[in-house]
Here is the input.
Amino acid sequence: MTARDIAPATGKLGVLLPGLGAVASTFIAGVLQARQSGEAPIGSLSQMAHIRLGDREEGRNPLIKDFVPLASLDDIVFGGWDPISPNALEAARTAGVLEERDLAPISAEMEGIVAMDAVFDQSWVSRLEGTRVKTGASKMELAEQLIADIEAFRTENGCDRLVIVWCASTEAYRDVTEVHQSVEAFEQGLRDSDPMISPSQIYAYAALISGVPFANGAPNLSTDLPCMIELAGREGVPIGGKDFKTGQTLMKTILAPGFKARMLGLRGWYSTNILGNRDGEVLDDPENFKSKEVSKLGVIDTILQPDAYPDLYGNVDHVVRINYYPPRGDNKEGWDNIDIFGWMGYPMQIKVNFLCRDSILAAPLVLDLALFFDLAARAGEAGVQEWLSFYFKAPMVTPNPGGDDLPPEHDIFIQQIKLKNTLRTWMGEEPVTHAEQ
Here is the structure.
């Protein structure tokens, strides 16, 4: 098999983060600590996972980071935008995810990562008030300011390449409208300040026009739009999303494939969450929760294939709730009651109580997405990167020009195989099917 021609990861990689909140500041701190201490960044597939090559008896099992030409952690430069926090250190202290003992050794570097003024519109996140916000005569002017920010960051930091990972809040749910149907319509909408164009869509547009890969870590329709898919193809830029797969949904994509593998039936899945960070405050608004609910609810149906298995999964009650509870902070708690049934229809129950740390789970995803999207760009990839569905609650799919789009793959184990086989293929190795003895 012929290897893909992939440009080397030489020079600096700028990682730009819209939203220097809990997730972004935790990600930055973790990378800085790993660079300083040499400790492994736990949770990062790109840094810690091995990848088997060839047949088992060959014994080839290198680390992914030693197999594919990823950017080094030492070559990453951080930047971002935030409407509230002036720098990464203050953002981290405000979020309260990390203890001061972990922040103290890297405090000078964290404080030096100064947030640029953000594109912010309170109508999309009603529970937050932005104070460090860009102004302009139109949304096109705001996009042009972001484009200028991107180029200034690239020049001032001597970056050879850039990637943008959205780490800001969940926006209010809105349907796709005419303004999103083409690049031409979207650009006219920017000039007209169309109210259906959200801040995250302005960031996505600015990134793609600047030739910068864009990964969407929230359930917003940032790049999952006809105009953005068209623009990404035109500009030759990788895109993907949406919504980091962290706590409760991570558990669903682990457990649901197991039920289906054993042909166990499912009657209902009740999920509730309590969290008290900025994300919880934003999601306390019904419009913003709707965006999150849509990304969470699609997971089980796609994995369990109720049309193929109506007797097992054709009548499932799936309920998701999120409750804002300030004392919990970033330490989100997810409760799941799962009603399953087995032989002769006898019912059983599974209870899951996941006391997770949301940003601790999300931070390694930001690192992997930044490195893999940069790799994709150097490999000549453009458009939706379905092979990175592993990281998202509601993965984007490449549109099907011949008809209805195929559903996304949610099974985390199939997603992992697809990710690793993509890397194998790009490097000239045969995909692994696990069919050999």
